[in-house]
Amino acid sequence: MIPKTVMDFPEAGWRFDNTYARLPQQFYTRTNPTAVRLPAMVIFNYSLAEVMGLRPDVMESEECIAVFAGNAIPQGAEPIAQAYAGHQFGHFNMLGDGRAILLGEHLGPDGSRWDIQLKGPGRTAYSRRGDGRAALRPMLREYLISEAMHTLGIPTTRSLAVVLTGETVFREEELPGAVLTRIAASHIRVGTFEYAAMQQNPESLRALADYTIQRHYPELAGAPNPYISLLEAVIERQASLVAKWLLVGFIHGVMNTDNMALSGETIDYGPCAFMDSYDPATVFSSIDRNGRYAYANQPGIAHWNLVRLAEALLPLFDSDENKAVEMAKESIGKFPDRFQYHWISRMRAKLGLFNGEAGDVALVESLLQGMLRSRSDYTNTLRALDPEKLCGVDAAWHADWRARLARQPQTLEEARCLMRCNNPVVIPRNHKVEEALEAACSNGDYQPLHRSLAALANPFEDGPEKNGYREASPDCSVGYQTFCGT
Ligand code: AMP
Ligand code: MG
Known about the structure:
This protein is of the alpha+beta class. It folds into 3 domains: 4-187, no CATH class; 189-429 and 470-486, no CATH class; 430-469, no CATH class. It has helices at 46-51, 62-69, 136-151, 190-198, 202-216, 226-248, 298-317, 321-332, 335-350, 360-374, 378-384, 395-406, 412-420, 430-443, 447-456, and strands spanning 6-7, 16-17, 28-30, 40-44, 73-74, 80-82, 85-88, 91-94, 100-107, 113-119, 134-135, 158-170, 174-184, 250-251, 273-274. The two termini are 23 Å apart.
């Protein structure tokens, strides 16, 4: 391992703690980033830095750029690569941070704790045949889409910085190399528990579960059975998260168990993309040939992944295995209802409905079926809905909806107001994402990327900065393909 410069630069505002590195040793390997030739910052998230208690004005100093490139370790950080396993497209594999290094946890001014992870910092003990590096384009893609998810109100990891390394990486061709700094509530994955279960050591599994409870669900520590409560709490957060994805037309694209976080944040932006015209079978990822992770399959896959989590936790539920299995089944069985609850609650808001009626699911389904038949744009159809104008929806459906609105005490203006806060004007449109990435990566022009970020900053408010960002791709993204971020 290359000896590392520890950067003593208190002006930056880093406050590191390293609780993950106190877990049993099999959960990580101490690893320093590999220094790069010529670091250059290309984008930095000043507003996020401010929230984190970092000093935005010094972030572009040589000292700070060295940290974001992996050329220096900030004072107090204890870099590690995390061990994990995962089911990838249904198949179990031992994995781990092959192209990521966790610098440690930064403590914010309000006591919040964030993982600071470098993505693309060189090889680790888990790199297998990979180079541990990342190309610029997928790192900018993660930056843009994760920030958009955040402004859309969806729990997500965030992006603090992207630096060029001054080195090239070899994929199918030679590409500019980059390092992304990712901020997360934590990087504990379903796959981390699958890895722990493989160790056949109940004490280390318990240590991981206790750590997760303490870090993300401290209120469960005193529960009669904290581990079954942990499972149920994760089920709840995932049910809510995947409902939020569906409501904005988001397709994660690679919902492997190693890409599902126990915190309930969206994690690992690889081949993800947003749907234009409504079609439940939409798939963009080039590697998802069977549509396992298609738009409408996502709740079912989340459920499947949570069963893998329950299996891993089994020894903690009860010493009697049969009893443990019964407990797990009962909890896991709640997922479909919890998903449906979150989905219909938020769908009601998208339709301007303040209360619930039994027929609401059918009303929504009928709207979606109409969109599918007419290949309507999902986002724009919802945003354009108006109780007093047809705006492209079926007249019979519109009449049903009007009648439904009339059965609630709120006025039409109140309904419109609710709808405006729940139906975004803009989402990251595939053609605009590609345009921004192309300009940055081919011409070094970051203006389109900044304009995209500005258009997505307040996605529920219309305004001139949205011009050019409301429309679906001219070809409705037919044939649009995304690739894994390697
Ligand atoms: P992902 O597709 O990003 O979820 O990654 C799946 C697994 O492959 C993880 O264990 C990664 O660390 C590993 N991996 C992906 N790309 C590389 C790379 N360039 N070098 C080493 N490991 C990688
Ligand atoms: Mg991953």
